[in-house]
Amino acid sequence: MARRTPHAVICLLSALRFHDLTTQAPFEVWLAIPNKAHAPKMEYPPLRIVRFSGAALTGGVEEHVIDGVAVHVTSVAKTVVDCFKFRNKIGLDVALEALRAAWAERRVSMDELWHYAKLCRVANVMRPYLESLP
After folding, report:
1. Which of 23, 33, 39, 108 has the smallest CB count inside 10 Å?
2. What pTM does this model have?
3. What's the structural domain count of the chain?
4. What is the pLDDT of residues 34-64, one digit of tens each?
5. Start-to-end CA span in the chain (Å)
6. Within a domain: residue 3?
7. CA–CA distance from 19 to each of 23, 87, 112 (Å)?
8. Using an 8 Å Cβ cutoff, are 32 and 50 in contact?
9. Which range marks the domain in which residue 114 is found?
């Protein structure tokens, strides 16, 4: 999949699973692609496409090598923020679970979360949840 869609970034539930931050087991691979890019067509695995533009697509992307193939995956902090951005698609409970798990395991800092929250324009949505963290 990464070879056929080099511009795509694994995100949201698939990235949460990759970073081991959720109890969810997504049956689709969540991919972020540029706004005007053609969506990849694949029989397997099933894909769930979300569209990003500019810095929201390129910011917070890490490259991991899996079975000798370079795969782009959103970082822990960016993944948590993206969950809040797409809370209507994946559920606020999943976003809160991811935030609590990442914070409890000390895998994100407040600065990282705030940076990506502003970048993705969800700072006002996330503010009360970030303020309630211990």
Report:
1. 23
2. 0.91
3. 1
4. 888 888 888 888 899 999 888 888 889 999 9
5. 39
6. no
7. 11, 19, 16
8. yes
9. 9-131
